[in-house]
Amino acid sequence: MDRPIKFVFLILPNVHLMDLAGPDQTIHEAIDYGASFIIEYCGIDAEVQSSAGLHMKKPLHFSQINLSAGDYLLIPGSSVTYLLSPEFARNQSLFDWIRQCHQQQIRLVSICAGAFVLAQCGLLNGIACTTHFKQTRTLQAMYPLANVRENILFVEENNIYTSAGIASGIDLLLYIIERHKGGYFTHKVARELVIYNRRDGSNQQISVLLQFRNHIHTGIHRAQDYIIEHIYQRHNLGALAEIANMSERNFTRIFKKETGITATYYINLIRRELIDKFLNHKDLTLTQIAQKVGLMSEKQVRRILKSVDT
């Protein structure tokens, strides 16, 4: 069994609560669905006061934390005024520790103004990065060697992930979870958070498993879940309508209204994405691939590859 992946939050003075709570809750939901993740918290002070004035009990000192290659160190945003202050700049032992984490292949994740901490460590030099839109110019001016990106939710380079903050921190954590657990698992986490359509931060394609879910119709969600979980079967609209607890005519109308596409086209989009993945396995024939996605022949596989865009 693979070892659990550890997510450690570095909670600094004047932390922004949503930058902390959003990603934290996202990881907790993944754990509730069975992900082998561990969450820990650390800081530099005996007690942490958030930017909203809420006091939090003493976290572990960062020097007490054990991380391994492949784990994540997350830095939620704090007050930029504090992060640029002489007081914070005196934390050289913290900056050394963060640099050491990066050298040990620990993935560094900043939420919002947390990017200023990574910049202070010199880790954003030559690296594409981002932060809250109100602070991108300040970040670039203070750290001219950083490649600060604007108008983007999050960006990843060289094991460093930076995000624009608040809600985009959730988007980034969903992206990270998808890399470990796949699209359908991440869809379930996003749905639990009532985020039906994960926003993409770096302009790469979003899995079809996560698309067309930006609605709150539970019957249609049940039908979509069934389609994904039983894509190896043939589907008919009557059976899907029963799963959605509707008449076939109403199901057809509501599915198109809520998703923007027909149920049949949705099924074929799911099939097309899986076919593309299976084609990477050179030992599978088109006939075998057809069986895995609920089709009857190579001809049907070729037809979907030709007619369905993902």
TrEMBL record:
Q: Please name the SUPFAM superfamilies in this protein's record.
A: Class I glutamine amidotransferase-like, Homeodomain-like
**Keyword ATP-binding annotated:** no
Q: What is this protein called?
A: DJ-1/PfpI family protein
* An MF annotation (GO) of this entry: DNA-binding transcription factor activity
Asked if Lipoprotein is a keyword of the record, the answer is no
Q: Which residues form the signal peptide?
A: none
* Keywords annotated in UniProt: Transcription, Transcription regulation
Boundaries of every HTH araC/xylS-type domain copy: 221-310
Q: State the InterPro entries in the record.
A: Class_I_gatase-like (IPR029062), DJ-1/PfpI (IPR002818), Homeodomain-like_sf (IPR009057), HTH_AraC (IPR018060), INH-QAR (IPR052158)
Q: Which organism is it from?
A: Spirosoma profusum
Looking at the record's lineage, which domain of life comes first?
Answer: Bacteria
